[in-house]
Each structure stands twice: as C-alpha cells, then as structure tokens.
Amino acid sequence: MNDRVKHIFIWPAFLLVLVITLFPLIYALTVSFQTIRIVPPTPARFVGLDNYGDILANARFWGAIGTTATIVIFSVVLQYVIGLSVALALHHNVPGASLFRVTFLLPMFLAPVCVALIAKMIFHPVLGPANEFFTMFGLENLPFLTDPNFAIAVLIAIETWQWTPFVVLLMLAGLQGLPAEVFEAASVDNVSAWRRFCDITFPMLLPLSAAVIFIRLIEGFKIIDTVFVLTGGGPGTSTETLTLFAYNEGFKKFNIGMTSALSFLFLIVVIVFGTLYLAGARKLTQRYEQ
Amino acid sequence: MKKLLMSVAALPLATMTHAECLPDYTGVTLTISTQNGPYVASALRTAADSWEAKTCGEVNLVEFPFGELYPKFLTAMSQQTGDFDVIGFIPAWVPDFAPYLSTMPAEMQQGDAWDDLHPVYRERLMSWGGEIKSATMDGDMHMLNYRADLFEDPDNMSAFKAEYGYDLAAPVTWDQYYDIAAFFNASDAVDYGTAEAYARGGQQFWYFFSHAASYTNNPNNPGSMFFDPETMDAQINNAGWLRALEDYKRGLDFNPPGSLNNGSGDVRPLYAGGTVAMNLDWADSGILGATEGSIAGNVRTAMLPGATQIWNHVSGDWDEFNAPVASPFLAFGGWQLAVPSDSANQEAAWSYVAELTSPELSGEAIVTANTGVNPYRLSHYDDIEKWLSIFTEEEARSYLAAQRASLDAPNVALDLRLPGFFSYTEILEIELSKALAGQVEPQEALDTIAAEWDKLTDEFGRDSQLAAYRASMGLPALN
Amino acid sequence: MSREGFRKAGFLLSLFWLVLCIFPLWWVLVTAFKPPLAVSGGATYVPFFDFQPTLQAFRDAFSGIRGDFYGPIISSVLISIVSTALAVLLGSMAAYALIRFTFSIRLLAGLLFGVLAIGGFVVMTELWDMAVPYALLIVLFVALPAAVWANGRNLPGPVMGNDDVTFWFVSQRMFPPIVSAFALFLLYAETGKAGLRLLDTFGGMVLAYTAFGLPFAVWLMRDFFESVPVEVEEAAMVDDIGRMRIFAQIVLPMSLPGLIATSMVVLAFIWNEFLFALLLTSSKWQTLPILLAGQNSSRGDEWWAVSVATLISIIPMILVATFLGRMMRSGMLSGSIK
C-alpha cells in the first residue's frame, strides 16, 4: 500500500531524529578535526587527525575503556545469571509470584542518580548498613568508595541491582512464550529438572538471551550518572568511565576539539564491541541449534 | 509559563510591604548564582532579602554543585547569554573569567567601606589586569583549630611533656602537629587526633597546599611556591613539595576512618562534634564549634604550623632558619562576587554586591554559622563586641588574632591563580588521590603532575602564563 | 536435585532478591525522617524503635532554605510530560506507517544524502565561513530533496525496506548519549550565537528529549500495532474514511493499553535522564536529576536532606512501575514484549 499519506505519518519523526540526533554529529565531526579551546580562548586551528592520535596515545583513554568494560561485563554476567534464575522461579509460580513481579520492576524505574545517592549512604565506611553487615564478619570499615577495586565492585553491584529486573522481565516473557508441547513431552519421558533446563529450556532461550545480553551491554557502556555521583571518577581515575572522561575533558577543561574526537572514538569502540559480540553470538546460537 | 506557575506557587509566601524603594529597582529581577548551600548561598540569600526590602527588586538564587560552577559560569559568559547578573566564585578562576566581567563602578572604589577592606584582599585578590573586577565577600585562609579543654587539661599536659619533652600548645611546626595528633589519637580523652580533607572534588588540594607552603614558600625567593618565577617551570615536584605530600599522607593515620572520602564539609562537624582534637580548615570550623557543636567555649584557633627548613629552588637545597617560619596559606583566597559584562542589570547587580559586602551585613554574616563568610574587613577584626554573641572572650581573641596574624605575616603565601586553572588542578587532584590511596609513590605522582603542568603551560603559551603567574604572586613583570 | 528442591531454591532466591530490592528503598524512606543524631551515631533502621522520626528535613526542603526545590520539580514535570506526549505521538505515527505501508529507500540515495550533507556543510562552514546553523539549514533543504528525488529514479543497488527503517530508528538508542548530547550542545551553542536561544530553554530541552524518546516509542508501538487486526481498518477504508481518521479514531483507541505502557516507559526514561540535562541546562530549567546530583556535593553527612530529595524523584516512578506491573499481570502486555 503506497498511499501518499504515509509520508505525513513518518516524516515528522524522521525529520526530528535527523535534525536533533544526526545533524549535530556532522558539526561535531568537523570540530573534532580542529583544536578549539574556550579556556584560555584560542582560535580554531585545523589539525587533522591529531586529536584522535592524542587520545589513542593517552593512557587515560585506555584506562577508561578498561574500567567501563570491566564494570559492564561483570555486571551483565551477574544480571543474566540472577535474572534468568529469578525468571525461572517466577515462571514456575512460586508462592507470592504476583507480589514479586511488581516489586522486581522497581529498581529499573529509579533514576540512576537516585540509586547512586542511596548507595553512597548505604556504603558509607563508618555509618552505613553495609559496614554493619560486613563488620559482623569481622571486616570493619571497608573502604567501599575510596579503594579502586572496592569502588568498582560497588559500581558493579549497583548496576546489577538496578538492571537485573530488565533481564527478569524479558526472560520471563520469553519463558512464557515457549511452546508447551516440548515440556509435556519431556515430562512424559520423566526427564530431570536439571537436564530439562540444559537440553530444552536454555537452548530455546538462546536467541532471546543473546539479544537481552546485547542490549544490556550496549546500554551499560553508557554509564555515567552513577559514577558521577558516587566517586566522581576517583580515586585518581580508577573509576572513570568513557562518558565521564569525555565530560571532564569537555566541560572542565573546555577542550572542545578533543572531546568531539573522543565522542567519535567512543562510538567506534561501541560499534566494534557490538559487532564482535553479534558475530560471536551468532556462532554460538548456530552451534546450539544443532 | 514557568514564571507564572512559580509566582502562583509563591503567592502564599509573599509578604512584601514597603514604603519606599531606595534606589528604586522595581521590576528588576536579578539572577545570582553560587555553589550549593548552605555555605555562601545562605549569605547570598540573606543579603537578597535585605536588598529586596530596600529596593523593591527581586532576586532569584540559583545553586550548582561546586564542581559545576566553573563550567556553568564560563559557558554562560562565553556565550554571552546574560543568564547571570551576579556570580559568586573563587579567585582562582578570575584569570579565566576576567575578560567576561564588568569593572566595579568607581563610586564603589572609594569611601569608608572601601577603606575598611584589608589591603591584602583589596589590592591582591580583587584586581586583575589593573582593574577591579570583583568584590571580596569572604576572607579565606587555612587555620589550625584546636580544643582548649584538651590542650589545657593538666593530665594531658603532663603526659604529653613526659612523652615528647616539650609543652603541649598549639603546634608551630608540622612535626609538632603530628606529635600532638599521635598523642591525642592514642589518648582516651578524644576519639582521633586530627581531621583534614582528602577527597577528590572535596577541595582537598588546598589542604595539601597548606602543608606545602611551609616548605616551599621561601622568603628569599618570593613567588616560587608553584612555579619558577623566571622560567615558569613547574616546582611541584621539588623536595619541599615531596616532604609536604609525605606529611599530608602521614596525617591519615591520625584521622578518623574513611577520611580519604572526607571533603571540607566533613572535617568541620568532626571538630565541632568533638570527635577530633584538632583540624585544619577555614575559619568555619571555629564558628561551627561555637554555635552548633558540642565544644562551645573551647574553640581555639592558631596560625598554620610552619617549618625551620624551606626549600630553595635556586640553590637546590634546604635553607635553615633559627626559628620556625610561618607561611600561612591564604587557601582559596575568599569568595568573590562579580557582575558579568553581558548582564542586563549591571547597575542593580553592583548595588546588590555593595549591599552584601557592606560592613553591616557582612558583620552579621561572619558570626552566623554555615554562611561560609569569614572576616575580611578591618572592622571585622577590631570590633570584638559582635563576636561575643557567639564566642567567649578567649575564643574570640584567639580566633581573631590568628586570622589577623596570618594576614599580616611577612611570609604569607598566596593561592594559585592562573588561566586554565582547572586543567592544572585536575591532574593535581588525580595524581594526589592516587598517591594518597597508595597506588603510586609520592615522588612519582609529583613528577607526573610537574610534567603535565609544563605541557599545559606550553600549550597555553609560556610567556602569557608566566606574566599571569608573576602578577598573581605580586611580582613585577619580567623584562 | 528434585523438582521440589528446585522450587524451594527458587522461592528462597526470589525472597532474597525481594529483600535486596526493597531494602535500599526502605532505607531512603526511613532516612528522610531521621534527626541528625540518628545518622551520625551509626546505622539505624526502624522508626520509633531505633530513633524518633521527625519531619524537619521535609520542612527544610520545602521552605527553600536548602535551595530551590520547586523550580527543578516543575521543570522536570513540564519537560517530561510534553516530551513524552510528543515522542509517543510522533513515534506512533511512524510505527503505524511502518506497519501498514511499504517503504523503499535505495542505498545509493541515502549515500547521496550523506555525501551532499557532510560535503556541503564542510564547504559552507570552512571555505565560505558561514555560521553553522545556517549551513545546516541549507544542507537540509538542499540535500534532502535531492536524495528524495534520486530515490524516485531507478538507481541500481540494494533497496532498504521497512525493517531497515525501523532498525535505523531503534539504533539511535545504541549511540552513546555523550556523543549526541555533546554534539547537540555544540549545535545549540552555535544557534544561540546566531540568535535563536536553545540552551537552557524549554523548547531546546523538549526537542532533545522528544528525539531521545522516539526510538522507544517507535519500537514499542510497532509491536502493539501489530496486534491490532487489519480487518477493522479495511472495513473502514471501504467506507472511504481517510487514513488519518482511521488512525486517530480507530487504531489508537484500540491500542490504548499499549499507548499507556509506552508512555510510561518513555516518561520514566525522560524523567530519570541525566546527561542531556547536565549539558543542556543551566539556571532556568534544571531538572530533578541535576538537583539531586547537586545535593551530593556540599551536604556532607546530611543524609536526611538527600533522602527527601531522592524520595521526590523516586515516588512518581514507583507509582508508574506499580501501575505497569499491574498491567503486565493482566497479560495485556505479553505480546509486546516479544
């Protein structure tokens, strides 16, 4: 059907996305090839790929990639494992499932800034409940937010807390959509629960799982709110994520050219990462489908 | 639309009855901005109420987190948006802001209120490039605060003398400071020895500078604390700075746990609440202790400890002095108010500034807790009566004497003021927090900072940076 | 393990996870009522038992001593609601078009657009020194019609269909927000210099957030529309009712649950959004997340003040989440999830 009216339906959205999301990128791209500083005010100078080169040579950039990747990968693995388990539990109608369903959604809907503020209180090394909890095991006054490794662990914990509900939601829907006949056949054959999971449920969920993990990975890479509030990137730059690094460059040092180049490099990192993942996921899914 | 909603929401709260508006600014709305309260913002709010009552104008106060002030102000001013009529900021940013600020009206640069300002603030901090671009609203320096009850307790005094061999009193050198901190940390009389700020973004590097001034602000080489005043080479990795960093780090042992995450806002309640025997801070700790803390009556303030050895960067060795040389560090310099040149209400804005910095209003602010306003006018120091409303006489005398002595000290150390301040301090903060967390050795951290500082200086233009640095240190231009 | 054993384990896990989910929310709720001593003395948990609750923090917050609360709240409410409405409206329209009509876009035409746009922009700004916003406008009005015209010609090469267009919309989500936020900041700054003020304005924020919410809206509404039976529309078309009216008066009402769900999801994302607000607002249109980040800096140990502020942001979202959870239970949304 090719009514001309179809244009009225789609062009507003299309134009808006084009003008707001894509056009600025054209401008930013040109800026990334120049040196522009607002402070102190220096006139724009064309420098070609120098900005890109400087960033790639900057250890802080690779550190930020490492930090972001660590947080994302660990938290997504945890999200998936816990999320799938919880989804399985809910699917088999454990008592109270309806209450669980509602409360499990909550963390997802809170602003990451809020979650970070709450976490800052909970993980206070002296006055927070986390400290009381760990003191029970003899570990007093752990430097949750001031030691690089602890800080990253806390960030991973927060990410997991906040986004496991997303995984639960989607995996549960996936579980509910699985064909019943296969399971009936399995119960006739008296297959054990564990084998049933390994040989039937999990492989059938593989495409959905791959998609869910992919979404969470891409979304996770963007992390900034939590880090901004919780540690500000410290101690040193050990918890500085890519977005935070870009923000600091652009808005504390007003190094506009460098920040634009950094944004594009970030985009390339995400694309590379995403492509690698999709290729790997496809292979895995195909293998399992045999 | 939003204004309509706001005014509707505010209707029940409006209680404006006034007879005359002098000068008349009816219909004028000033947008003033500074860091999140209560410090500084509450003083702005109080002055706003007073100004609104006098002139029938309106004031809208916008607050940002401290870390956001610089970007927000600079973005607005460089874009000429006219968003802000009055900004409250720190002198370190004056070099970057100066091109966008309007000059103080000539009428304000004379008269009793003008003469009442302490010369250090008037001549050094308020001017840049030969023009008065901002008004001091607060006098800042780091002090040593300590507790009379602990220091004058006979048991403590005899125990201390027995262990360390000299009398317990306000420390005049950093070694004494650490002896006392260790003593009180171990003692049952109080929980911990001292409190300093260590957190990145918590104004920590000023605490570090306070230590460094004693070892690097050499009276024989004026202006050589941060950079070589001849070549603009970074000095931050010399032996004096190294000793300061080792000291600063050593203090962690005598601080309460979790102090690596303490900002300046955290060290105050620790002192005022009686958890520590001493702290390093701006004068706010004293006020807090006397008004909201549990140590009222026992607040004492002293000048920062000094040193008998100061590094001489020219000879490459330590200079020895017979008596400890105090180099009180004017940390922060003191909040400034300025009127951006793109403001549409400059006259009204400067009238507000005059109101806030007036001897009367400022005299009130300095004795009110949580305002962040510390003395800077001669009348603030001389008039002891108003201080008695919060201090005992002994407290007041010690408090004022220490500040006055710091300002008048021959080897007073000025804070860093350079274009691109943030770029310099960002690498400083990063490496400093790494060194404090034990991730790198102190010398390595300082070397990294120095290398980066030299790189930045070259990028910004060594000659212009050198000229700016010499001006900020009160040195004549090189020719 | 037996089936029963797994079930028990599942129950325990769910219970454990429930406690973990609820505890931080309980904590912030309770802390908002704590007097200073209940915080500095160590962790306390139960009001009336561990400590005496007080309303002082709430009074402080709303009286304005601690800074302007009302402003950011109003900003957030206004911006979120308008942006959500626009995003869902435009997104539904686009989603509907992608379901009911066929689009074909030749890759070459798309490439032509790209080349003309970037090339033209560079030429105009670098060689001819034109101001950025004007250059972009010219590019828009020249390159776009040119590409559309080229699309009408029979060009060789692959043709992209509806699914590709959908993918294009949805892939906007994959962009790291810093990339678009920063680029948008630069653009808004430039338009500001050219006279049109977009930074820190209602219009600027709504534009940005609508574009931000569109990918969600298109993605979600597409699934909802798929479950609307075509026959109803075909019947209406036989009666010669215009497409727009069919959309507005038949399709939309039939997918009301989906509209509501999508609106709530989009609203949640915009309400909680931080980065765009950080970069694009200043004094006049600060939103709640920025206010909250500000509470963090100079409050030190004033946990009660922080908690009150956090609660103000959280409570509307808890209502949204609860409502959505109920809708899910009644199975209205199961189709869309796929």
Overall shape of chain A: globular
Q: What is the number of beta strands of chain B?
A: 13
Share of residues in strands of chain A: under 5%
How much is the average pLDDT of chain B?
86
Biggest beta sheet summary of chain B: 5 strands, mixed
- Kindly, what is the distance between the CA atoms of the first and last residues of chain A, rounded to a whole number of angstroms? 40 Å
Tell me about the largest β-sheet of chain A.
2 strands, antiparallel
Radius of gyration of chain B: 23 Å
> Which strand order does the major sheet of chain A show?
1-2
Q: Which class do the helix and strand fractions of chain A yield?
A: mainly alpha
Bin the helical content of chain A.
over 70%
Approximately what portion of the residues of chain B adopt beta-strand conformation? 5-15%
* Order of strands across the main sheet of chain B: 2-1-3-13-6
User: Compute the gyration radius of chain A: what is it?
Assistant: 23 Å
Structural classification of chain B: alpha/beta
Descriptive account of the structure:
The complex is a heterotrimer of chains A (290), B (479) and C (338). Chain A is mainly alpha-helical and 290 residues long. Chain A contains 12 helices and 2 strands, in the order H-E-E-H-H-H-H-H-H-H-H-H-H-H. In chain A, 74% of the residues lie in helices and 3% in strands. In chain A, a hairpin with a 4-residue loop joins strand 1 and strand 2 (42-46). Chain B is of the alpha/beta class and 479 residues long. A 5-stranded mixed beta sheet of chain B has the order 2-1-3-13-6, with helices on both faces. Chain C is 75% helix and 1% strand. Chain C is built from 16 helices and 2 strands. At the A-C interface, helix 1, helix 3, helix 4, helix 5 and helix 6 of A face helix 1, helix 4, helix 5, helix 6 and helix 8 of C.
In short:
The complex is a heterotrimer of chains A (290), B (479) and C (338). With 479 residues, chain B is α/β, with parallel strands linked by helices.
Element layout with pairings:
The complex is a heterotrimer of chains A (290), B (479) and C (338).
Chain A: H1 5-32, E1 34-37, E2 42-46, H2 50-57, H3 59-91, H4 97-109, H5 112-122, H6 129-135, H7 148-176, H8 180-188, H9 193-220, H10 225-230, H11 242-251, H12 256-288
Antiparallel strand pairs in A: 1-2
Chain B: H1 2-10, E1 29-35, H2 41-55, E2 58-64, H3 66-78, E3 86-89, H4 94-97, H5 112-115, H6 119-125, E4 127-128, E5 131-132, E6 135-136, E7 143-147, H7 148-151, H8 154-164, H9 174-186, E8 192-195, H10 204-216, H11 239-250, H12 264-272, E9 276-281, H13 284-291, E10 299-302, E11 307-312, E12 317-325, E13 336-338, H14 346-356, H15 359-365, H16 378-382, H17 393-408, H18 421-436, H19 442-460, H20 462-472
Parallel strand pairs in B: 1-2, 1-3, 8-9
Antiparallel strand pairs in B: 3-13, 4-5, 6-13, 7-9, 7-10, 11-12
Chain C: H1 3-31, H2 36-40, H3 56-63, H4 70-100, E1 105-106, H5 107-127, H6 132-152, E2 159-160, H7 162-171, H8 177-194, H9 202-226, H10 230-238, H11 243-254, H12 256-272, H13 275-280, H14 288-297, H15 303-329, H16 334-337
